[in-house]
Model the fold of this input.
Amino acid sequence: MPLNIRNDEVNRLATTLAACMGTSQTEAVRRALEHELQRSAPAGTVQDRIAEIRQRVMARPATGLEADKAFYDSLNDQ
Done:
């Protein structure tokens, strides 16, 4: 069933977003709804979230720098 929105503010927002994205209003609304669903979806267990963060961290290349006392002192200008 098609969505029929009769709200001037929502229409204005959809028009503005579509122009920014270079798409139709329908595509802009679809992307916005998908984004909001992804953002508000439960992230799973704490272990799942930690595993995801760990994956992102491990995917970054190693710098070869050592996080020693001098490094941490430099963060505090000591």
User: Anything to note?
Assistant: The helical segments are 8-21, 25-40, 46-59, 69-75. Residues 8-60 form one domain. The two ends are 64 Å apart (CA to CA).
